[in-house]
């Protein structure tokens, strides 16, 4: 695990740390070639400089976030924001469904919108894959 991601996880409550550690482990397993770093204060994984998946501690949960998740056509993911992102929120590690998360991570590799160049394109997203 990236040392900055480990430090982020270690800074959480024991229950939230358990969720964060499990999510990081799954993401690292299913996206082994992704770059992981802290971006906008939370762990994010990138492919070719494009943000793919990350998680963050919110007030009452840990949010798993997929930048292109609305295009996955997965009923368990909720729309997030005004672009193509979707999320799933967890309050207990027991809520993590590893098969679902694996499928979403695999889709995140195959279905991507170009967030890396969103500023250059003045807020317009283009599909990469």
What does this structure look like?
There is one protein chain. This protein is 29% helix and 24% strand. By secondary structure, it is α+β, with helices and mostly antiparallel strands. It has one domain: Alpha-Beta Complex (Aspartate Aminotransferase, domain 1), CATH 3.90.1150.200. It has a 6-stranded antiparallel beta sheet with strand order 1-2-3-4-6-5. Strand 1 and strand 2 form a beta hairpin. The longest helix has 17 residues, at 14-30. It is globular, with a radius of gyration of 14 Å. The mean pLDDT is 91.
Topology record:
Elements: H1 3-10, H2 14-30, E1 35-39, E2 42-47, E3 50-57, E4 62-66, E5 78-79, E6 86-90, H3 98-110
Helix pairs in contact: 1-2
Organism: Gracilimonas sediminicola
Protein name: DUF1801 domain-containing protein
Domain YdhG-like: 17-107
Key structural traits:
129 residues, alpha+beta, Aspartate Aminotransferase, domain 1, 6-stranded antiparallel β-sheet, 6 strands, 24% strand, DUF1801 domain-containing protein
By DSSP, the count of extended strands is: 6
**What fraction strand?**
15-25%
- Helix/strand-derived category reads alpha+beta
Question: Based on CA inertia axes, which overall geometry fits?
Answer: globular
InterPro entries: YdhG-like
Pfam families: DUF1801
Protein name: DUF1801 domain-containing protein
Domain YdhG-like: 17-107
Describe this structure in a few short sentences.
This protein has helices at 3-10, 14-30, 98-110, and strands at residues 35-39, 42-47, 50-57, 62-66, 78-79, 86-90. It is an alpha+beta fold.
């Amino acid at each position: 695990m990236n040392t900055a991601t480990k430090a982020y996880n270690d800074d959480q409550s024991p229950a939230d740390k358990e969720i964060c550690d499990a999510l990081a482990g799954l993401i690292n397993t299913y996206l082994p070639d992704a770059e992981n770093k802290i971006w906008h204060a939370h762990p994010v994984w990138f492919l070719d400089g494009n943000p793919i998946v990350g998680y963050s501690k919110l007030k009452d949960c840990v949010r798993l976030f997929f930048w292109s998740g609305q295009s996955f056509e997965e009923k368990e993911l909720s729309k997030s924001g005004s672009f193509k992102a979707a999320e799933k929120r967890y309050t207990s590690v027991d809520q993590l469904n590893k098969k679902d998360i694996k499928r979403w991570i695999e889709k995140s590799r195959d279905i991507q919108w170009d967030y890396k160049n969103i500023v250059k394109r003045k807020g317009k997203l283009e599909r990469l894959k």
